[in-house]
Amino acid sequence: MDPIRITRDAFDFIAHAARSTHPNEFIGMLRKNEQGVIDTILVIPLSEYGRGFSGINFTMLPAHSDSCGSVHSHPRGSARPSKQDVRFFSKRGGVHLIIASPYDENSIRGYDNCGTPLQVELV
Description:
Blueprint: E1 4-6, H1 8-21, E2 27-32, E3 38-42, E4 48-50, E5 53-55, E6 67-74, H2 83-89, E7 95-100, E8 108-112, E9 117-118, E10 120-122
Parallel strand pairs: 1-10, 6-7
Antiparallel strand pairs: 2-3, 2-6, 4-5, 7-8, 8-9
């Protein structure tokens, strides 16, 4: 399967958001540009950022958001998806990112909607 391609600016936003909400989880939605590269992170109003959980209020997601998946952080250092993560993945888009502490290029992982690992490529 093709790698998940993401711009440096979008990655930097994710890393900054994860650091800013630590020790709580950060969550957002992903959007791709015309070239199929993730370049926008949608931060949804009334989302929840908690210790060990995060959640999106989908009633606040813009109707024409064109989201392709999600991103969230794991403050405890493992970027492996939980069973709850995979359940969420299966309902919302085809690509998902998890960034773990310390929130750098080496701690981001990609998954498809079944939780199968995908390569992440910064472009």
